[in-house]
Sequence to fold (166 residues):
Amino acid sequence: MWRLNEIRQAVWSVDPNLPLARIGTLGDLYDASIARTSFTLIMLGIAGVMALLLGTVGLYGVIAYSVSQRTREIGIRMALGAQQKEVTGMFVRQGLLLTGIGVAFGLVAAFATMRLMSSLLFHVSPVDPVTYAAVTFGLVAAALLASYLPSRRAANVNPVEALRAE
Fold:
């Protein structure tokens, strides 16, 4: 603040009738110019995290429902000698198949809308392969976790109780 007084005194020593308004640093001017873009990107990030969370919970729900509907089948498989890894793998594969379909549609939509979003990007290409790979890896990891938890529960089904359940 004391530098602003020095600047005012220096300007007024040259021309005392010169009005001074909105004195600030170049950093302040820069921050004000990108404030709207920063806010937009933060909101898009929050929306992306919420979409990932909802997708993970949804996939967990689908796999858990599938496990509950197939309890009898799981019991028969276990009674006939299926190993826990096989039963777990069956449901994890189902979850990863659903994820693969979703990622494929998502990548197509991302490529289609990248021209619209390119004005919001700063020092990042709209076709940045590292970003696409990282997002795909994150989605697959979240889906793997969301499908592994209910499939592990399915693998621990007691065959006798599963056959009596219905």
